[in-house]
Amino acid sequence: MAKLMVLTLLGLGLALFRDHRASYQARLNAFREVKPVELPNCNLVKGIESGSEDLEILPSGLAFISSGLKYPGIKSFEPDKPGKILLMDLNEEDPTVLELKITGSKFDHSSFNPHGISTFTDEDNTVYLLVVNHPDFKSTVELFKFQEEEKSLLHLKTIRHELLPNLNDIVAVGPEHFYATNDHYFVDHYLRSWELYLGLAWSYVVYYSPTEVQVMADGFDFANGINISPDGKYVYIGELLAHKIHVYEKHANWTLTPLKSLDFNTLVDNISVDPVTGDLWVGCHPNGMRIFFYDPENPPASEVIRIQNILAEEPKVTRVYAENGAPVRLLEN
């Protein structure tokens, strides 16, 4: 009888493992192959060999790029160097990147590990850059003032809070006010790996201000990119491993009400919003298995989708760019 019980439990355990493994592979889109979609005049920009994690474009055409992210379980091309914020002028015919100098006596350059970024322009045209940072794999938000003449960032303060333990992306709604995604519930790396494997969908979105911090949405399977509509009425949240983008209505008290969700055959990451048309431009990972299990012979692919009229009953979705790992091969060669 005891042997039968052991065999039964073993069989149930193996069945459960197979079910979770199949679910894990589906969530990572493990078997997706990518058919390239090329864009004219598309060139590899030198100076970002350590990768670019997020991009924020000012109305003037200046673009901030966070580079050099070290994230547990993902390949880093410069593991021993601190991250940086780069500046690119998209008005130039052949844009190049410039590393912005960071000033401020209380900022630790050596542990700078930037992730998601967002800007806020005040009424006096002061530009603030908010950066998700992972010093020693913890989570903070660094607040900078952009000094365009000096091509530098003045560090103003570091924001920490218990509801901001696993930050991924951020969208600023004031100099010190923002929504942010936590891509995991657990902080411990071992528990995070099981959370990811089991698909617990416990990640969440937080609203932060100096006087109020509150969870505004939860139940996500790896909450990732976040952004806001040009009129400030809607918040868009990317759910990486559910392959969804969620649309929330933003209220005057900063609470969020879910309106709709869109499904995709890709892992949605960062979301950029056209300030004029309101179109969403979304950076995506067609096959997540190639991100978390890096193979230099078969590097991760990427693609960009454009979503027009997202509030319509049938938004127009266009796959505008896709590649099968070619830029990574160029960097490695």
From TrEMBL:
It catalyses: an N-acyl-L-homoserine lactone + H2O = an N-acyl-L-homoserine + H(+); a phenyl acetate + H2O = a phenol + acetate + H(+). It is an enzyme of class 3 (hydrolase). Its cofactor is Ca(2+). Binds 2 calcium ions per subunit. Its EC number is 3.1.1.2. Keywords: Calcium, Disulfide bond, Glycoprotein, Hydrolase, Metal-binding, Signal. InterPro entries: 6-blade_b-propeller_TolB-like, Arylesterase, Paraoxonase1, Serum_paraoxonase/arylesterase. Pfam families: Arylesterase. Residues 1-15 form the signal peptide. Belongs to the paraoxonase family. PANTHER family: PARAOXONASE (PTHR11799), SERUM PARAOXONASE_ARYLESTERASE 1 (PTHR11799:SF16). This is Paraoxonase. The gene is PON1.
